[in-house]
Amino acid sequence: MPRLFIPLNILMHLLFGEETGTYFIDATTIKACHNKRRYSNKIFKGLAKHSKSSMGYFYGFKLHLIINEKGQFIALKMTKGNVDDRIPVPELTNGLTGVMYADKGYIKQNLFISLYERGLKMVHGIKKNMPNKLMDLKEKIMLRKRNLIETVFDYLKNKMNLEHTRHRYPINAFVHILSTLVAYSLKKNKPSINCNFDFPLNYNLIPN
Question: Which terminus in the chain has less CB density within 10 A, N or C?
Fold first, then answer.
C-alpha cells in the first residue's frame, strides 16, 4: 500500500477540476482515533493533533478543500488538526482569480486584501459586531449556496468512508484518504449548483 502514495498523489493533481472563477472553501476534520484514546494512540504520535471544531474536540487532521460550483476539487491540503483554517489559504489559492465563498471562520482583513490584490475576492458572512459591507445580490445568493462544500464533505465521509480510524500505519491512512479523494474525482455525478443566472438592471430588492 505505501508504494501507492506517490502515484495517487500525482493522479489526484491531474484530476483537479476546471478553474471557473467561482469557488467554495472550507475544512473538515479527519479523526485519527476517538478523542478519549488520543493519549494511548501511538500510531499517529507526532502527526495528529488535538483540537476543537464546531462539532467538539477531536484528535487528528484537517482536510482543507477548494471546490468549484460543479463539485470538482480545485485544491486541497492535509494539515494537523490544530492548524487555523486560514493559514493554508494563500497556498491553496495560488493562481486562482474570481470569487471565493467562505464561512465566518475565514474572516481576516489582511488575508482578504492579499487575495483581492491578486484577483481573488473572498466573500464570507459577517459577525454581529462587524459593519455590514456592501455585497451584490449574486454574491448574497451564492453565499447561501456555500453548503455545497459541506454536502461534498458529507458525501466523502458517509458515502465513501473518508474517515476511517482503524489504520495500523500512518501511510495506510494517507493512502486511504487519497484513494477516496481520487474515487470521488472520477465520479461523473458530483454535487453541484447552478450559478448561471442574471438579474435585469431594474431588479428591485424591495418588494412592492
Answer: C
Q: In the 3-class helix/strand/coil scheme, how is 147-164 assigned residue by residue?
A: HHHHHHHHHHHHCCCCCC
Contact 27, 200 (CB under 8 A): no
Q: Would you say 121 and 99 are in contact if contact means Cβ atoms under 8 Å apart?
A: yes
Distance CA 33, CA 54 (A): 18
H helix or E strand, kind and range, residue 176: helix 170-186
**Could you give all domains of the chain from N- to C-terminal order, each with its CATH number?**
2-129+142-186 (3.30.420.10)
User: Which DSSP state fits 23?
Assistant: E
The DSSP call for residue 84 is: -
Residue-wise burial string across 175-185, b where 16 or more C-beta atoms lie within 10 A, e elsewhere:
bbbbbbbbebb
Q: pLDDT (tens digit, 9 = 90+) per residue, 141-158?
A: 899 999 999 999 999 999
Exposed, middle or buried: residue 23 (CB in 10 Å: 0-12, 13-18, 19+)? buried
Long-range interactions of 130-139: CB distance < 8 A, separation 24+: 137/199, 137/203, 137/205, 138/195, 138/197, 138/199, 139/99, 139/101
Q: Tell whether the torsion through CA atoms of 200, 206, 207 and 208 is positive or negative.
A: negative
C-alpha cell read off for 73: 476539487
**Which of 191, 186, 184 minimizes the C-alpha distance to 162?**
184
